[in-house]
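Sequence design from tokenized structure. All designs in this work follow the same two-part layout: the structure record, then the generated sequence. An example of the structure record is given first.
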């Protein structure tokens, strides 16, 4: 039985939950969550784009910093996962990396996923979470002892 494709709504909901709630060390246990995380990285890298190893490492470090400390993974492990799961292809010499286009990637995702603003969604979710925490702290300080 084939899995149902991941919709843009599920993708956005799960990537924010993963990046705010925490991932790692390593990839999430659930297969769909692993693919959601890796797809979000590949979207940030840009489909079809080519990188040297050092430029890919820099891009991965930037992505990890942007999504926040809740994703506990180093860029080397992340690069390996992207290659192992076929989101990124490395040339035979191991010097050039190419991000697979959405046409080449699996049928695991609906096409609308390619248009999700992952970092914007994560930042908005983090801001909402902080606002809720701030309101709770404020309501506790006003309660009589």
């Amino acid at each position: 039985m084939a899995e149902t494709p991941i919709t843009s709504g599920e993708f956005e909901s799960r990537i924010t939950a993963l990046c705010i709630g925490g991932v790692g060390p390593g990839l999430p246990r659930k297969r769909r969550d692993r693919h959601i995380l890796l797809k979000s990285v590949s979207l940030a890298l840009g489909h079809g784009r080519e990188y040297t190893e050092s430029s890919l490492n820099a891009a991965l470090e930037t992505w990890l910093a942007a999504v926040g400390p809740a994703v506990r993974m180093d860029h080397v492990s992340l690069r390996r996962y992207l290659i192992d799961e076929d989101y990124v292809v490395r040339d035979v010499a191991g010097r050039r990396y190419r991000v697979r286009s959405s046409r080449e990637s699996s049928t695991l995702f609906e096409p609308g996923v390619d248009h999700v603003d992952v970092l914007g969604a994560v930042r908005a979710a983090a801001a909402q979470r902080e606002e809720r925490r701030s309101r709770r702290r404020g309501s506790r300080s006003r309660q009589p002892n």
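Strands lie at 50-52, 88-90, 96-99. We note this feature because it recurs in several other targets discussed in the main text.
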